[in-house]
């Protein structure tokens, strides 16, 4: 039995659900089986039907009404409820063997930062349900083409890497929204960034009293080897193809096979 899963993570509104749909669309068009698992208890139905939907177990609206909670408290409650009822997930995934799962998660930072909810879920998927997992972490291009926001995005991606300890792909989403030539040029620099050069740029525009902090953060990003982002334009099958080839490679790698360099590359000018 071989089950592969890609957890789609990133801040709210970054394009996670749209990316999930683009992956399903691309895989279906290329005769590959895949299943969408929705773990966002607030998600509305989208283009493709979910194979498994947390809302069949618990929905955010019901939980907020019945428990008198706000949206963030309600979300935490839904995840705690899911974790207390993991046999439900087991039953839902039950006979799906030799399958590819695309797992859409909510973007609320509370789930990742203050609680141990997502790591517990990941452990269950990985060790109890034997799903060979990887993470695709999305950051929005138009947001990060500013050095300070880029470093802030890197830190949030690194926090997910450290927290989940899974093979990890970083993606800059919505590249089509970066329109003018100057910004496009900057975007290229951020896809294959040299954190130390970006740090010099950042220091040019920040108060000197922060330079030491900037230097430390850029050294950390540099040491961590977080040197690459893949561009995503959800409506462009070429960008989805390249990302999928990376997902295929790193999930094979985490199964214990030899890592291979993905052959596919995509340039921003190709999109
Ligand atoms: N132009 C453009 N818009 C996009 C792209 N991907 C997503 N969007 C838009 O961005 C908005 C948010 O997309 P979603 O897919 O709902 O984002 P999300 O991360 O799932 O949002 P939450 O679940 O609320 O965290 C929607 O209006 C999408 O149509 C893209 O590649 N290009």
From TrEMBL:
<dbReference type="InterPro" id="IPR027417">
    <property type="entry name" value="P-loop_NTPase"/>
</dbReference>
<dbReference type="GO" id="GO:0006606">
    <property type="term" value="P:protein import into nucleus"/>
</dbReference>
<dbReference type="InterPro" id="IPR004130">
    <property type="entry name" value="Gpn"/>
</dbReference>
<dbReference type="GO" id="GO:0003924">
    <property type="term" value="F:GTPase activity"/>
</dbReference>
<comment type="subunit">
    <text>Binds to RNA polymerase II (RNAPII).</text>
</comment>
<protein>
    <recommendedName>
        <fullName>GPN-loop GTPase 3</fullName>
    </recommendedName>
</protein>
<comment type="similarity">
    <text>Belongs to the GPN-loop GTPase family.</text>
</comment>
<comment type="function">
    <text>Small GTPase required for proper nuclear import of RNA polymerase II and III (RNAPII and RNAPIII). May act at an RNAP assembly step prior to nuclear import.</text>
</comment>
<dbReference type="InterPro" id="IPR030228">
    <property type="entry name" value="Gpn3"/>
</dbReference>
<keyword id="KW-0547">Nucleotide-binding</keyword>
<dbReference type="GO" id="GO:0005525">
    <property type="term" value="F:GTP binding"/>
</dbReference>
<keyword id="KW-0342">GTP-binding</keyword>
<keyword id="KW-0378">Hydrolase</keyword>
<dbReference type="Pfam" id="PF03029">
    <property type="entry name" value="ATP_bind_1"/>
</dbReference>
<dbReference type="GO" id="GO:0007064">
    <property type="term" value="P:mitotic sister chromatid cohesion"/>
</dbReference>
């Amino acid at each position: 039995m071989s089950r592969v899963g890609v957890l789609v993570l990133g801040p709210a509104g970054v394009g996670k659900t749209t990316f999930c749909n683009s992956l399903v669309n691309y895989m279906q068009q290329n005769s590959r089986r895949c299943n969408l698992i929705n773990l966002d208890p607030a998600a509305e139905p989208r283009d493709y039907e979910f194979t498994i939907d947390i809302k069949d177990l618990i929905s955010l609206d019901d939980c907020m009404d019945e428990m008198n909670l706000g949206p963030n408290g309600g979300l935490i409650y839904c995840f705690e409820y899911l974790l207390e009822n993991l046999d439900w997930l087991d039953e839902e995934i039950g006979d799906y063997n030799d399958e590819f799962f695309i797992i859409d998660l909510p973007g609320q930072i509370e789930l990742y930062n203050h609680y141990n909810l997502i790591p517990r879920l990941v452990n269950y998927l990985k060790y109890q349900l034997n799903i060979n997992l990887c993470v695709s972490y999305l950051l929005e291009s138009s947001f990060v083409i500013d050095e300070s926001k880029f470093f802030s995005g890197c830190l949030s991606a690194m926090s997910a890497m450290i927290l989940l300890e899974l093979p990890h792909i970083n993606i800059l989403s919505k590249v089509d929204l970066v329109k003018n030539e100057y910004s496009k040029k900057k975007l290229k620099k951020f896809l294959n960034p040299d954190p130390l050069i970006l740090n010099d740029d950042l220091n040019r525009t920040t108060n000197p009293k922060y330079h030491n902090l900037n230097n430390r953060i850029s050294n950390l990003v540099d040491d961590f080897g977080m040197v690459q982002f893949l561009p995503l334009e959800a409506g462009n099958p070429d960008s989805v193809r390249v990302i999928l080839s990376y997902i295929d490679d790193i999930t094979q790698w985490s199964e214990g096979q030899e890592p291979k360099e993905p052959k596919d590359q995509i340039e921003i000018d190709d999109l």
